[in-house]
Every structure is written in structure tokens, then in C-alpha cells.
Design goal:
162 residues, alpha+beta, Immunoglobulin-like, 2 domains, six-stranded antiparallel β-sheet, 17% helix
Amino acid sequence: MKTNRLLRIVGITILYIIMAGIWTSCASLSSGEIVQSETTASSEKEYTIEVLAVPGKYSPTMSSVRGITLSVSNPIDDTNIIYNWQTSGGTFFTSISGKESTEYSGESVLWGCLFDESATSSTSDTITIKVTAINSSTDKEVASTSISIVQEGLNYIVQNPK
């Protein structure tokens, strides 16, 4: 009885590891994932941050995908750094949904569209998402970057900046 339970736990663990590997492989195939940033000059150290966006293409019709997960792929190694995310469209799904989200220690944020009648239009809209690294002890911006998400009908595609 205990042996069967142990085998089942080991099997489930192996299955999770395999699925995580497949998810990582699929995510790395998405276009426009890592986006280069601009460096913001200040009297403090200069940092460069990049945004990782997974998946690179999203549609609200994808039942198993809640939105585009955004994270800083190279977080600044400083406990005083917070990341402020802002979007010109859609929303961040955090404890309080909205156009702005502040995350500590480089946690990821989940962005999604606000589905309404205009989402089915054939026009192409561009949404800008900006992340700013702020030193919370000095309240100074130390780095920032932005990415674009282009809406094409029901699809939202992450674009590299120009």
C-alpha cells in the first residue's frame, strides 16, 4: 500500500518535470519574448533591464492561457529595487486589477486584454507596457524599458521595440 502511494507520488513528480520542460520549450519558441531595454542614466549605477513575455502571442479564446506573463528577465540584484508596471491598454491581473502594478523582487505580472466589442474589430491597435525599476530607498528611477503588444482582431502579439 505504501509502495503504491510512493510510486504514484514519484510518477506524478516525473510528469510535472516533463510538463515543465515541454512548457519551457514551447515558450522559448514564441516570437518576441525577450525585449531589450533602454538604460536610464542617473547619479546611481546604470542598469539595463529586459522583459520576458510568455507567450509571445495571446488570444482570449485560448482557454488554458489567462494572459501574457511579463517578468524582468535580468532582475537587478538589490533588495531596494521595486518594479512599477504600467499599461496603455488591457489590465494587470494582480490582487487589484488595473493599469498599474508594483511588484517587489522582480515577480512576474499577468497582463490580459479587457474583452469588449472593440476586441473583435479588424483594426490593429498598439498597446504599450512600460516597466520601471525604482530604488525604493532613494525613490529614483534606475532603469526602464517598454514593449508593444499589437492587437490584430482577437490576437495580441508581443513586438520588439524599434
